[in-house]
Amino acid sequence: MAITDDINAVPVPDSPARPDLSGIVAGFTVGAAVGSILPLGKGLINDTFAVTTDSGRYVLQRVNQRVFPRAERIMANLSVLAAHAAGTDGLRVPALIPAADGRPYLRTAGGDLWRLMELIADAVTLERIGTAAQAAQVGRALGRFHRLTQDLATDRLEFTLPGFHQTPDYMFRHVALRGQATWAADDASVRACTAFIDTHAALAWVLEDALAAGRIPLRVTHGDPKIDNILFHRVDGRALALIDLDTVQPGLIQHDLGDCLRSCCNRGGESGPSGATGAVRFDLDICEQILGAYFAETRGFLTAADLALCYDSIRLMPFELGLRFLNDHLERDRYFRVAYPGQNLRKATIQFALVASIEAQEAEIRAIIARGVAGE
Ligand code: GN1
Ligand code: MG
């Protein structure tokens, strides 16, 4: 199928057969006997494994080509980012291990694309934020990423996922799906979601309008700074790196900030606590710690227009993800990996409940932003 820039299109499926993981690792220049290969992390898009060999530990990933049909762009961006980060403190870019032919990836006969990366030592991910210090580390890490990339010209980076955070596109898709997915029309949860979307439609345009009007610029973004994508030092708890760099591309830092907060301030997690979604709450204490540390790193280059959009970014990103989960449910789970049918719908409901919690605490959140900006 043709490669396309349409984010909603679904080209080449990855081969369904169970891959020969040891054979794949042997195709890279690790030059050592392969020991264990175990699933790693909870990513919804790529397949990820931790590999142990005689010479060290690595991360093996099959890039999901339905989502990233132009994976070579990811590799190009990683090289630019690694060169830019070289010698700086606080932005670690995991090194890619070359395949036997010297390329930074390996393509199997079936067309799958694999890459092998160094595994950052002594690093752990957190299931959720447990302490104020951890929250501050998150804000610091994201702020450093933005600070260290603010002098990296966006035209040096490729768009790995065109349209990724263009919320209006997900709205247009949603409107089309309402007409198509008649099988879901009577479901009470779907109806509750669509009613919520109808009352919030204008929100989808808030950042795109600001960009189009020239009020905020495109900058280098991570694209997916959720809690699972932050590595912490196993002993001292410092944030060591932002990982999952596939979506590093020109974008709006507001997307990153909103996405980070929607992930970290939702203590129940994306799949929610067992039981009612009424318990979903946006945690103000975590928000305050993250923003305080984030603004401490980014003071001096964020503009008044950037800051004025902060609150709207915080409610936009869970809204966008809710839309994306719901759209995927209506498309019968083609994009996000699901553990059971209906999980995307449940996750959509949780994201919309998070938006509602943010809106119920608007005054407090605006006060937190003001304090963070002032450095109080
Ligand atoms: C996806 O693959 P993973 O889990 O890192 C998604 C993000 C979502 C996230 C929600 C390329 O990230 O945009 O916020 O799930 N990545 C892509 O958990 O769509
Ligand atoms: Mg990701």
Counting helices, strands and paired strands, the structural category is alpha+beta
CATH superfamily of the largest domain: Aminoglycoside phosphotransferase (APH), C-terminal lobe
Straight-line N-to-C gap: 54 Å
CATH topological fold name of the largest domain: Aminoglycoside 3'-phosphotransferase, Chain: A, domain 2
Question: Your description of this structure?
Answer:
- The chain is α+β, with helices and mostly antiparallel strands and 376 residues long.
- The chain folds into 2 domains: 21-119, Phosphorylase Kinase, domain 1, CATH 3.30.200.20; 132-374, Alpha-Beta Complex (Aminoglycoside 3'-phosphotransferase, Chain: A, domain 2), CATH 3.90.1200.
- The protein is 42% helix and 12% strand.
- The chain has 12 helices and 11 strands.
- It has helices spanning 21-26, 71-85, 132-149, 167-180, 188-200, 206-212, 253-264, 284-298, 304-308, 310-330, 343-360, 362-374, and strands at 34-39, 47-53, 56-63, 96-97, 106-107, 113-118, 123-124, 219-221, 230-233, 239-242, 249-251.
- The strands form 3 sheets. Strands 1, 2, 3, 4, 5 and 6 form a 6-stranded antiparallel sheet that branches. A 3-stranded antiparallel sheet has the order 7-9-10, with helices on one face.
- α3 (132-149) packs parallel to α8 (284-298) and α8 packs parallel to α12.
- The protein is globular, with a radius of gyration of 20 Å.
- The model is unreliable at 1-15 (pLDDT under 50).
- The structure holds 2-acetamido-2-deoxy-1-O-phosphono-alpha-D-glucopyranose and magnesium ion.
- Residues 43-45, 67, 161, 224, 226, 244, 247, 270, 321 line the site of 2-acetamido-2-deoxy-1-O-phosphono-alpha-D-glucopyranose.
- 2-acetamido-2-deoxy-1-O-phosphono-alpha-D-glucopyranose (GN1) binds next to loops.
